[in-house]
Amino acid sequence: MKRILTVFALIFFALINNAAFSLEVPGENPQDKQFGREEQFAREEAVREQGKAALEVEKANAELEELRLEAEGVAAEDTARAQKETDLMYRELVRELSILYKEAEKEAEARRKELEKEEARVLKEALEAFEQTTQELDKDLQRIKLRAPRP
Known about the structure:
The protein is mainly alpha-helical. It contains two helices and no strands.
């Protein structure tokens, strides 16, 4: 930022010097001839200062471009590093999710087996209850048949 301000100050200074010495004086008088040599020297000095300022501006622009390229390089390196880290994290996440999925499948299979066992047990109990009820009904039916009919 300091360099940029310095460049702008130099450009401003060069433009002011150029503008000051480029003004034409309307009419000549003997005094102008007297200061003509000094004015010519001042103009030459201003041109030299302007040239120096232009060189400094070019130098500052080159430095600024170099800094920009360096910043782009650093940003590209950071982006590449971040991409690698993201890829590694993605792979790790996929691996962990795969492990969790396998564990969930195992748990689901175990739960399914438990449910099948429970269903078999409930069905067996229901069949036993049905069988017991059938036996009781058979006994009652036998008793009814053994009894003499009522007149």
